[in-house]
Write a structure and sequence with these properties.
Layout (H helix, E strand, L loop, with lengths): L6 E5 L5 E5 L9 E10 L2 H4 L2 H7 L7 E2 L3 E9 L11 E5 L18 E5 L3 E3 L6 H4 L3 H12 L19 E5 L4 H12 L3 E6 L4 H6 L4 E4 L5 H9 L4 E6 L4 H11 L5 E4 L4 H10 L5 E4 L10 H6 L3 H6 L8 E7 L4 H9 L5 E6 L2
Parallel strand pairs: 9-10, 9-12, 10-11, 12-13, 13-14, 15-16
Antiparallel strand pairs: 1-2, 1-4, 3-5, 3-7, 3-16, 5-6, 6-8
Helix pairs in contact: 4-5, 7-8
Length: 350
């Protein structure tokens, strides 16, 4: 049975943060209550002011933000019987998504309501701080790679046979990019990534066959040379300016012509209309889409448990613990706004 007391980091409609009491969630069918022990922060959590109302126009306030959580199961609803009380898990907290829209499912609280289909066991040798870096990055990468209206690639599995074609991940050392490299490899594709020179070894360690410095003026030519006579199965554009840099590559390469951008903005929509005449199909990734589609359970239920448990999938990027307690989260968000490279900011919850 879950404890009787709970606290959360509440966010007002004006963006003000307050730590205060919160109702203890009760799990319904297909749900779990998890005692949060580590949470990670993401750029979408750091969005403030009027822009938050643009990103989440129907979010109810006061809200509890956060998507990345790892901890221990304390209560189980009907149908969530692949877990037991006491299990260590990580999960994508879906409270900000329109189809859930509830503070009980925000990650920034001591006890979080999670959907079983978005929850994965944490192996004994994986610290909760490191496990917490995964959920939103995994969901966003999976959405871009596998959703039917994105790159629509075949789903990953442990031991997938190699496929023809290459996936280009522009921004491969980011949280989303690092997971995209691993997911694309698990789906059987060769991967070419881009990253700054200092992160090349990191991206290659995740399975990329080659890495190009995105600052290199000849990056597009080098990528096309690396493709040789192979087809480009799909491209993920992650990071500022990535859409502009990747469109000419997709135009010049043979393959699907599909490009998924991690920036769901009006500019992406406008560029998509312009590029249709060149045979390029541009889509905008929404990282929360797997919380309601079949891609969510395909990753969290069917793929990640074995992949993490056998060490074939790494929890990346490296967790950087920057505070302890709910009241440390606003400072973590402020640090995130200042820029972070090849690491994920995590706050532990005692």
């Amino acid at each position: 049975m879950a404890p009787a007391e709970n606290e959360a980091l509440w966010t007002s409609s004006t963006g003000r943060f307050t730590v205060g009491a919160a109702p203890m969630p009760q799990p319904g069918p297909g749900e779990l209550v998890v005692r949060a022990e580590a949470v990670a922060v993401n750029p979408v959590d750091a969005v403030g002011g009027l822009f938050r109302h643009v990103v989440f126009p129907k979010l109810r306030y006061p809200a509890v933000l956060g998507s990345d959580v790892a901890g221990t199961v304390v209560a189980i609803g009907a149908g969530a019987d692949r877990f037991r009380v006491g299990d260590r898990v990580l999960g994508h907290a879906a409270g900000q998504e329109q189809h859930r829209n509830t503070a009980a499912e925000g990650a920034f609280r001591h006890h979080v309501l999670l959907l079983e289909r978005l929850t994965t066991p944490v192996p004994d040798d994986l610290a909760v701080e490191q496990a917490a870096v995964l959920p939103l990055a995994v969901s966003t990468a999976a959405a871009g790679l596998f959703e039917p209206d994105q790159l629509a690639l075949p789903l990953p599995s442990v031991g997938t046979a190699p496929r023809d074609g290459v996936v280009l991940v522009w921004g491969a050392s980011t949280s989303v990019g690092a997971n995209a490299v691993q997911l694309a490899r698990a789906a059987g594709y060769a991967v070419i990534g881009t990253a700054s020179a200092k992160n090349h070894a990191f991206v290659q360690s995740l399975g990329a066959e080659s890495v190009v410095d995105y600052r290199d003026p000849s990056a597009a030519r080098r990528i096309l040379d690396a493709l040789a006579d192979r087809q480009l199965a799909g491209t993920l554009a992650i990071g500022q300016g990535s859409l502009t840099r990747t469109v000419p590559i997709v135009r010049a390469a043979t393959g699907s012509g599909r490009l998924a951008s991690a920036y769901p903005t009006p500019i992406t929509t406008f560029r998509a209309r312009l590029e249709r005449r060149h045979g390029v199909t541009i889509s905008a990734i929404w990282g929360g889409r797997p919380t309601e589609s079949d891609i969510g359970p395909a990753i969290y239920r069917d793929f990640l448990p074995e992949a993490l448990g056998t060490g074939r999938y790494r929890a990346t990027p490296t967790a950087s613990v920057v505070g302890r307690g709910l009241d440390a989260i606003p400072d973590a968000l402020a640090e995130l706004r200042g820029g972070v490279s090849a690491r994920k900011l995590v706050v532990t919850l005692p």
